[in-house]
Task: inverse folding
C-alpha cells in the first residue's frame, strides 16, 4: 500500500523547510556575511569553480582582492586572505598552522598520501622527520649534491651555445634541467640526463605537458558525474597518464644502492617505516614538483630579464657575476635579489593553499571566522596587495630587495615557498638550482626574446600547482656576452 497524499505532502514540506533552513543559515544568517566579497559568493561556489576549471582561479581571486581588499569571501564557506597577519595565523600558528583540506586529495599519488597531500599536521610532521634532512641547506650545498647541479647547468649552457644564431625553447630545456637536477637529488647515480638523451626527455615531456587538470577537478567535485561521463570526458578533458614516469620511478625505487645524500637512500634507511609503494609515491611527487616549480620559475624569470625594460637588470647581473668569479652562488647580492623578485612576480605555485579553521573558530585579520571554514592565501596576491611593502607591485624591480628599510616586512610577505612547518621542503634545492643556472648562463650570454614570441603567449596558465606559460613555449635568442652590447631599443 502506498503512502497517503497527506503524508507525502508533509514529508515534502518538511524537506523544503530543512532545505530552506540550511540555505537561510548559509546565506542570510552566515557569520561570514560581514566579510567583503561578490554577492554570488554567499550562495554558490560555481563561479569560483568555473574559473578554476578554465585555469584562471588565481587571476580571478586576485581580481577580487584588488576590488575588495586583503580579505574577501570567494564562496559560501571559503575566504581568501592576502596579509602578513593572515599568513602567520593560518600557516604558522602552532608551528604548522591549520590542517589542510580535502582539496589536496587531487594530488594523491598511487592512492597514497605523500608529505604534500597529508592533511593532518601531526601526520605530516612524522613524514617530514624522515625526509627533511635531505633538503636541508647543509645537504644541498655539499659537493655531491652541488656538483650535480653544476654539471647539469653546464649541460644547459651547451644547449645555449648550440642555439647561437637561432633561438632556444626555454620552456622545454629548463624543465629538462630541473628534471635532471631533482632526479640527481632523489636517485643518484640513477638520475636522468634529459638535456642530452631523447629517452629521458620523453619522460620530462610526459609530466610537463600534462593537461589533466580539468579531468581531475571533475573527479574531485563530482565523482558521480566523472563516472557517468566516462569515455566522453576522456575526449573533453584527458586524465593524468604518466606511464614513462611511473616506470622510471617504480624501477628506480627498487634500487638499494643510491648515494648517501639522496632522498631514496634516506627513505630506505632503518629509521623509515615506508613500504616500497610509499617510497615510490613520495619520490614521484617530489620529482613532478621539482620539474614544474623550478622549470616554470626560471622560465618566467629569464623571459622577464630578456625584455627591453629589464635589460639594465641583465647587464647589472652580468657585471656582478664577472666581478666575482670565485664567489659562492649564495654570496652574490644582486643575483639573490633577482631570484627573490622573480619568485615574487612569478610564484611557481600560484594556487591558494586551503586550510580548515580549527574547532572553536579563529580571529583572522580582524574577522571572526567559524570552525570548518576554508581559508587560504595565494602567493600571487600576498606579493601584490600591500603596496606599502611592495610599491608598484607589477614592476619587476630587484632593487627593492637590497634596501634595508622594510626588509622584515618584505620577508613576512614573501610566500613563494609558503610559510610555517608545512612550507616547501625543497626551497633550498630550488634556490640552488636557480642561482647556479642563472650564474652559468648570464656570465656567458645575453638573452633577448625571439621575434616570434608574443606577450600573450607568456601569460600565466594556472595549473594550480604550476604556473606554466599559456603557449607552453618560450623562445629566447642567446648571444655571447662579449659579441655586442645589449640594446634597449
Result:
Amino acid at each position: 500500500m502506498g503512502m497517503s497524499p497527506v503524508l507525502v505532502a508533509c514529508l515534502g514540506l518538511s524537506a523544503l523547510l530543512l532545505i530552506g533552513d540550511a540555505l537561510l543559515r548559509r546565506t542570510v544568517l552566515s557569520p561570514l556575511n560581514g566579510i567583503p566579497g561578490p554577492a554570488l559568493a554567499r550562495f554558490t561556489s560555481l563561479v569560483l569553480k568555473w574559473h578554476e576549471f578554465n585555469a584562471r582561479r588565481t587571476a580571478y581571486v586576485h581580481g577580487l582582492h584588488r576590488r575588495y581588499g586583503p580579505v574577501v569571501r570567494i564562496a559560501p564557506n571559503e575566504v581568501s586572505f592576502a596579509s602578513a597577519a593572515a599568513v602567520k595565523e593560518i600557516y604558522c600558528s602552532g608551528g604548522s598552522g591549520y590542517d589542510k583540506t580535502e582539496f589536496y586529495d587531487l594530488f594523491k599519488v598511487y592512492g597514497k598520501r605523500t608529505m604534500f597531500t597529508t592533511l593532518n599536521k601531526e601526520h605530516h610532521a612524522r613524514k617530514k622527520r624522515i625526509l627533511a634532512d635531505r633538503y636541508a641547506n647543509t645537504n644541498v650545498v655539499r659537493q655531491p649534491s652541488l656538483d650535480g647541479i653544476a654539471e647539469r647547468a653546464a649541460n644547459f649552457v651547451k644547449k645555449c651555445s648550440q642555439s647561437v644564431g637561432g633561438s632556444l625553447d626555454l620552456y622545454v630545456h629548463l624543465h629538462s634541467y630541473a628534471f635532471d637536477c631533482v632526479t640527481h637529488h632523489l636517485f643518484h647515480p640513477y638520475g636522468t640526463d634529459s638535456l642530452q638523451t631523447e629517452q629521458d626527455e620523453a619522460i620530462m615531456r610526459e609530466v610537463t605537458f600534462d593537461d589533466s587538470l580539468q579531468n581531475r577537478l571533475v573527479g574531485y567535485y563530482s565523482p558521480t558525474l566523472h563516472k557517468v561521463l566516462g569515455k566522453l570526458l576522456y575526449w573533453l578533458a584527458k586524465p593524468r597518464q604518466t606511464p614513462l614516469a611511473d616506470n622510471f620511478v617504480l624501477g628506480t625505487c627498487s634500487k638499494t644502492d643510491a648515494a648517501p645524500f639522496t632522498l631514496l637512500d634516506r627513505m630506505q634507511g632503518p629509521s623509515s617505516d615506508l613500504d616500497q609503494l610509499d617510497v615510490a609515491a613520495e619520490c614521484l611527487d617530489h620529482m613532478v614538483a621539482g620539474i614544474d616549480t623550478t622549470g616554470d620559475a626560471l622560465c618566467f624569470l629569464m623571459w622577464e630579464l630578456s625584455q627591453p625594460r629589464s635589460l639594465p637588470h641583465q647587464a647589472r647581473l652580468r657585471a656582478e657575476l664577472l666581478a666575482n668569479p670565485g664567489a659562492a652562488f649564495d654570496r652574490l647580492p644582486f643575483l639573490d635579489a633577482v631570484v627573490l623578485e622573480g619568485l615574487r612576480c612569478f610564484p611557481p605555485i600560484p594556487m591558494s593553499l586551503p586550510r580548515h579553521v580549527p574547532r572553536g573558530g579563529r580571529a583572522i585579520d580582524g574577522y571572526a571566522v567559524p570552525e570548518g571554514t576554508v581559508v587560504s592565501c595565494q602567493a600571487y596576491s600576498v606579493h601584490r596587495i600591500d603596496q606599502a611593502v611592495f610599491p608598484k607591485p607589477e614592476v619587476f624591480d630587484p632593487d627593492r630587495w637590497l634596501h634595508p628599510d622594510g626588509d622584515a616586512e618584505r620577508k613576512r610577505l614573501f610566500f613563494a615557498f609558503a610559510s610555517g612547518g608545512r612550507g616547501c621542503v625543497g626551497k633550498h634545492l630550488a634556490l640552488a638550482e636557480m642561482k647556479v643556472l642563472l650564474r652559468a648562463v648570464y656570465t656567458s650570454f645575453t638573452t633577448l626574446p625571439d621575434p616570434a614570441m608574443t606577450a600573450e603567449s607568456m601569460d600565466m596558465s594556472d595549473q594550480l600547482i604550476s604556473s606554466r606559460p599559456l603557449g607552453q613555449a618560450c623562445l629566447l635568442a642567446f648571444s655571447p656576452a662579449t659579441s655586442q652590447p645589449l640594446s634597449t631599443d
